[in-house]
Amino acid sequence: MSETYDFLFKFLVIGNAGTGKSCLLHQFIEKRFKEDSNHTIGVEFGSKIISVVNKFVKLQIWDTAGQERFRSVTRSYYRGAAGALLVYDITSRETYNALTNWLTDARMLASQNIVIILCGNKKDLDADREVTFLEASRFAQENELMFLETSALTGENVEEAFVQCARKILNKIESELDPERMGSGIQYGDAALRQLRSPRRAQAQSAQECGC
Amino acid sequence: MLVGALDTVLDSNARVTPFRIVLQAPGSQVSWVIASGASLEEVKTHWCWLEVNLLDSLSVFENKEDITSFVNGKIKGLIADESGGQQDPEGYREAVVRLEQRFGLPPREKLIARLTCCLWKTHVPRQGWMYLTHNHMAFYSYLLGKEVKLLLPWAEVTGVERVCVGRVTDVLRVRTRTRQRDFSMFLSMDDAMATITQLTDLALRRVLPTAGLRTPHTLIHTALTKRALEDHALTQDVLSLFGLPRTESVCEVRVCALWTPHLRSHTHGTLYATDSYLCFSSREPGVCSLIIPLSEVLSVEKAETSSVLPDPVIVSVRGRRAFQMVGVCDRDTLLEAVTDRLRMLRWKHAIYKGQHSQHTPLISPTPYYTFCYDTDGEADKSQRHVISTRPLISLNQSRMPKHKTAAERRKEALWEERFEEFGRGTHMFRTACLHKLVAMGIPESLRGDLWLTLSDASSELAAHPGYYAQLVERSLGEVTVATDEIERDLHRSLPEHPAFQSPFGIDALRRVLRAYAHHNTHIGYCQSMNILASVLLLYAKEEEAFWLLATVCERMLPDYFNRQVIGVCVCVCVCVCNGSIKGLADLWI
């Protein structure tokens, strides 16, 4: 895949241990389910370029360890994330109950305008379900999150989760979000685009050049 | 030679005697008052004494530092002689009263040390006293009618370092969040630095009780003295030098020479006797070190003194080996202390054994599973609590390549040679060559064995017979957060290795991890311990793997696995600061 892109977003994948965060990431990048996987130690990393509303966006995804005691380590990676996948396991109420904590962390430590999508993973294990779709979508609504139920095993909704999140960020850039602000978690793909996007600055620059 | 270093200074300050002999080494800003007198005659007698007693011997020395340190040592020795080894209780009491008057600290605030030094305030040095207490650093100076008072709680100190400022070469800089203070002209910079760093560290531990850093019990408030601090520092140094358990404390320290057969000579160094070890470290770092667990020791005796071998001490250990140390000063006290420890250990061991012989071996008839994550057959469950007595790798031999590679065989030969010459077991001579050999990679056939002896997990194993079996039994039915987390990770530990694709391996891993979580609730279960344990289980028996895991988590990497994984955080910080993963740091920061 070519390395040209319009934007670069920093993404986080967070949630309790064993909810399938790394499998989601693997499914998204490699398009298949990862059997026999180790748990994440500290933090892992993956990136992929996707196409959203006529733009190429490179996602730089930080996949974190879920065990409680590693939070002090993973928290340092929150800074300047533009988007986050908050993952719980639909077959485990415990992982759902922990969502509030994760949400507080993300809102506090990442970019203010962080776009979070809630992912109820392991959708394929519907028989063992402990958290209903309705309940989770209500939670998402109350906390202004997007919401999807995903399955890293079958790949259902995995790409969508990342794409929807990226699309929302792009929309935000159109309206309120300033990518140039420190810690926004967004970078431009190449310099030419930046000048196109902020004509005022380009004019100011050219005026300066004339001055010299 | 001394002329450049000595001069007599007349001081108008009435509080000190008018005539003094001051020693100043060229290039150093510190000068030492080594004699004083009320009249010129008095000083002259001192001067004569110096000429007679010191100047002759000074011509022996080559450089000026040696002279300074020699003269200092001499003078200090004289003072100590005069005061009969007492640590100036009068002065101490006075200092306590002064501290209380000037700073109004509560009386329970214990004074640990009082140092004379100089505070730099906008390029002006202010000579005065620094008081180090349990919670505060205080500085007081009264010079030319100007009073300088400074009180700084340790908890506010963010850094202590030695720097150079302009012409002043050795400055101790104390940083707080808002500003920094520079001190210089300590009598002993090393000493001041050590005490200050230790106190800051202690304060940090008190401020962050949740960080899982425990304040050593020897340093609790009431017992805190300068002496305790020094002892603690020594103990910490020795424990980290030899990787001993944190509960050990140093009893005796002796300079001596150890007979090292591989060098056909004696090696000079220091012998440390701790609660359950005898350790030796050569004066030249890395030449040779030795760790003898007292549990291995059969006897410690003194031998006949001869002109070639003064004050020899012979330590005999199991396996018909003995170590000889010579030049051990005050060997009787040392022998007494060690023999006492030995007797106590044997007595403990006898009691432990007595208790244990009544204990029935572990075969629990009750199924311990209250819930089930995996879907193994019923037949397997009965096998779950039977402790495996073989390394997992030996069970999977059929799937492994039968032939050892040539490199592997060559390495094995090298190790065999080494065992011949340097001995085998925990008390082998540890030299620089050993480190190289380990770094080359230990051959698979020796891994379990060498891990046990080099880390000294073998002593723990020997000291606690049957303990692991008890732990396994007790942890069987437990349901805690830790057991929950363990279950989740059992199938995520070396999943690609055949040993962990069968219930046999998984069960062994489960037992080890659960037993450890039960054994050390302070750590419980930390992700990554599963991977460690899996690798250990491959090459060591189950019980050995347990003690190896305990050694790694408690002795080799303390603070890495506790609830706050503070060691990991520190590591990440150091990495980011040093720029070794600069790419990562640059990416978003």
UniProtKB/TrEMBL annotation, chain A:
Matches recorded under CDD domains: Rab4
InterPro entries from the UniProt entry: P-loop_NTPase, Rab4, Rab_GTPases_membrane_traffic, Small_GTP-bd, Small_GTPase
Entry cofactors: Mg(2+)
A GO biological-process term: Rab protein signal transduction
A GO CC annotation given for this chain: early endosome membrane
Subcellular location, record wording: Cell membrane; Early endosome membrane
Pfam families (alphabetical): Ras
Sorted UniProt keywords: Endosome, GTP-binding, Hydrolase, Lipoprotein, Magnesium, Membrane, Metal-binding, Methylation, Nucleotide-binding, Prenylation, Protein transport, Transport
Membrane topology: Lipid-anchor
Catalysis performed (reactions): GTP + H2O = GDP + phosphate + H(+)
Single Gene Ontology MF annotation: G protein activity
Family the entry assigns: Belongs to the small GTPase superfamily. Rab family.
Function comment: The small GTPases Rab are key regulators of intracellular membrane trafficking, from the formation of transport vesicles to their fusion with membranes. Rabs cycle between an inactive GDP-bound form and an active GTP-bound form that is able to recruit to membranes different sets of downstream effectors directly responsible for vesicle formation, movement, tethering and fusion.
Protein name per the record: Ras-related protein Rab-4
Annotated source species: Clupea harengus (Atlantic herring)
Name of the gene: rab4a
From TrEMBL, chain B:
Domain Rab-GAP TBC per the UniProt entry, residue ranges: 441-589
A Gene Ontology BP annotation from the UniProt entry: system process
UniProtKB keywords: GTPase activation, Repeat
Name under which the protein is recorded: TBC1 domain family member 8-like
Organism: Clupea harengus (Atlantic herring)
Superkingdom as given in the UniProt entry: Eukaryota
Gene from which this protein is expressed: LOC116223342
SMART domains per UniProt: GRAM, TBC
GO molecular-function terms, A-Z: GTPase activator activity
A UniProt-annotated Pfam family: RabGAP-TBC
